[in-house]
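Summary of Year 1 activities. Much of the first year was spent building the evaluation harness for sequence design. The harness presents a backbone, in tokenized form, and records the residue chosen at every position. We chose the following record to illustrate the format because it has been used consistently in internal testing since the harness was completed.
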């Protein structure tokens, strides 16, 4: 599987991604495209229009042309690849797909988008049914909206747009502190030693976790040591307040945690962050945690100056739902 599938889904509904308009969604609503999971199938569930499907499905086209859907990314950014998932669509998936992008900041209407200048990122390409169809993208430009084209009609369960959020632009020292680790501000969970039960990206998602699966949770450690995760801030900055949230983790929260920080220049491989040559400074000494609690730390934090990366260590293992690192971007 392509490496890009481990990156943030810029179109995810949880990040504010929206389906704005489609040519047709007679059988199944376009909004399903951006929902979590791969979609489910319920054999005996029907609507007044026909079989209920967990995805976007247009009617059988009896005219020329093809169907399409306009999508606003929840977080504009650079795109590394797409996942056009036809899970559970077997006799009714589209034969081909293409994907176009445009840049229109603000909140343009569907009519304004139709008049925009669109750039083809994925040419007309074949699809397989019941599959995650992966398409790498090396375009490198920032995009705000996409047009998903299916040929000629049919159903797609989910549409994922994996990439990198445009880095935060924040006042250097003025105004209220912002969460420099938040995905919508450009934060990235780069690497961790274990994410057996749930993905590291959940740690920096908006809002509090919906359930235990909506956090970062490691397997039960049976050997010496502890678990850890490294994230990159959306912009270099100084941290004045930290929140470590164990929401929903009751019998499996870490006994304690610590935070370390460093300042690194350049775009280095994630694996470099495990190198012994990095000088990690203590931001939060090892501190006891409680179950199902939103912990706030301010006076406990140690001065580190301007930093770019933070390492969260949990002892010995367990689950954390959210990590917030509030501060100001550097000048």
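For this record, the design step produced the sequence shown next.
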């Amino acid at each position: 599987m392509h490496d890009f599938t481990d990156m943030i889904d810029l179109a995810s509904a949880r990040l504010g991604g929206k389906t704005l308009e489609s040519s047709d969604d007679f059988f199944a609503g376009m909004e399903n495209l951006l929902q979590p999971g791969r979609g489910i199938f319920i054999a005996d569930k029907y609507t007044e229009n026909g079989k209920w499907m967990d995805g976007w499905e247009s009617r059988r086209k009896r005219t020329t042309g093809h169907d399409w859907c306009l999508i606003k990314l929840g977080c504009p950014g650079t795109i590394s690849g797409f996942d056009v998932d036809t899970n559970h669509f077997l006799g009714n998936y589209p034969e081909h797909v293409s994907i176009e992008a445009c840049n229109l900041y603000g909140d343009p209407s569907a009519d304004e988008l139709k008049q925009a200048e669109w750039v083809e990122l994925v040419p007309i390409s074949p699809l397989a049914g019941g599959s995650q169809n992966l398409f790498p993208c090396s375009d490198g430009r920032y995009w705000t909206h996409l047009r998903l084209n299916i040929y000629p009609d049919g159903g797609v369960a989910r549409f994922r747009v994996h990439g990198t959020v445009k880095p935060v632009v924040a006042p250097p020292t003025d105004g209220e502190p912002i969460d420099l680790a938040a995905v919508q501000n450009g934060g990235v969970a780069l690497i961790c030693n274990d994410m057996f039960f749930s993905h590291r990206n959940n740690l920096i998602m908006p809002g509090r976790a919906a359930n235990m699966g909506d956090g970062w949770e490691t397997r039960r450690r049976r050997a010496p040591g502890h678990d850890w995760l490294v994230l990159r801030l959306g912009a270099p900055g100084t941290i004045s307040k930290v929140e470590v949230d164990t929401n929903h983790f009751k019998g499996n929260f870490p006994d304690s945690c610590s935070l370390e920080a460093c300042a690194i220049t350049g775009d280095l491989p994630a694996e470099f962050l495990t190198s012994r040559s990095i000088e990690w400074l203590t931001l939060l000494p090892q501190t006891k945690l409680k179950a199902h609690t939103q912990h706030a730390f301010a006076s406990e934090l140690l001065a580190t100056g301007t930093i770019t990366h933070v390492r969260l260590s949990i002892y010995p293992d367990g689950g954390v739902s959210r990590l917030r690192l509030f501060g100001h971007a550097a000048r």
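The chain has one helix and 22 strands. Quantitative recovery figures across the full test set are reported in Table 2.
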